[in-house]
From TrEMBL:
The gene is coxB. It is a multi-pass membrane protein. Pfam families: COX2, COX2_TM, Cytochrom_C. Its cofactor is Cu cation. It comes from Cohnella nanjingensis. Keywords: Copper, Electron transport, Heme, Iron, Membrane, Metal-binding, Respiratory chain, Translocase, Transmembrane, Transmembrane helix, Transport. InterPro entries: CcO_II, CcO_II-like_C, Copper_CuA, Cupredoxin, Cyt_c-like_dom, Cyt_c-like_dom_sf, Cyt_c_oxidase_su2, Cyt_c_oxidase_su2_TM_dom. SUPFAM superfamilies: Cupredoxins, Cytochrome c, Cytochrome c oxidase subunit II-like, transmembrane region. This is Cytochrome c oxidase subunit 2. Belongs to the cytochrome c oxidase subunit 2 family. Subunits I and II form the functional core of the enzyme complex. Electrons originating in cytochrome c are transferred via heme a and Cu(A) to the binuclear center formed by heme a3 and Cu(B). GO terms for biological process: ATP synthesis coupled electron transport.
Amino acid sequence: MMNRWRVMKRLLPLAAGMILLLSACGREDLSTLNPQGPVAQKQFDLMTLSISIMALVVVVVFAICIYVLIRFRRRKGDKTVPKQVEGNHTLEIIWTVVPIILLLILGVPTINTVFGLSKDYSKDPKALQVTVTSHQYWWEFEYPEYGIKTGQELVVPTGKKIQFKLASADVTHAFWIPSIGGKIDTNAGTGTTNKLYLEFPKEGVFRGKCAELCGPSHSLMDFKAKAVSQASFDRWVAAMKAPAVMPEDSKIKEAFENKCLTCHAVGENNAGSSAPNLTGIGSRQTIAGILYNDEKSTEENIKEWVTDTQKVKPGNMMPSAKDLDLTQEELDGIAKYLADYKLDY
Ligand code: CUA
């Protein structure tokens, strides 16, 4: 009894550590075990089914094994050869039929769900179409029906099928919103697009991740999916399509145009940009996908990011302030302008 308690006492901290590690710590949930939409729910149900069947098999096999080891062990002085069961039809039928039944229980719903989840809603007029392009290390979301593009924060209406078409601008990444569903590769260079649909029944912000090793900042390639009501989504679309708001100060405006808008875009001016569209960046939850604006101010985060982009996201393509010859005054002015550039929706 004492001994068992000692073992328990040693295992307790380990168990506590595992619980901390396995439970989502802070921020939006990155767990597939707490599904927030029908796609993730179906994937979760399949996991539950397969793990239950596996657990059942393990328990039954181990129970029989332990029983046989104890019940039929060789006793002292016993020299007889046990009864041979080779060619026993009953046994052979049992160990063939039982696994076939288990495989059917596992296989039929798996095939059903897998094919069900690969349905294509790109021709469905009720579905919202979103084109996803992955870049090292950020995400671009284009809404072809509305002619708008945004970066890092996907905005979607609740209660609609969202049909994604996904490809990569550079290397292979993978699109994954663990609590909503996924994941799917965004392929590089092959010209092929992958398709995936998701549904967001509840309003909220859901965290997305790149799920394919793509370079030194792979683990920092986060994005957000923000599910809002249809009315709010319509307001967002209108705000995105409104004429760009430019810096009021002419010196800051000039610096912004010459040093930022060569790659970025704001407002309707969003064709062929090679960097995230900055329209309404002040309303986003993060800067660069990982600097949270509720920890430091948006302005501070923009300055931290632009001052040394390689420190924040090693290997990314965004030049730092000194490469852009940004003066401190220009950096301060641009950071303030962008932080104040909010969308009302
Ligand atoms: Cu992109 Cu990993």
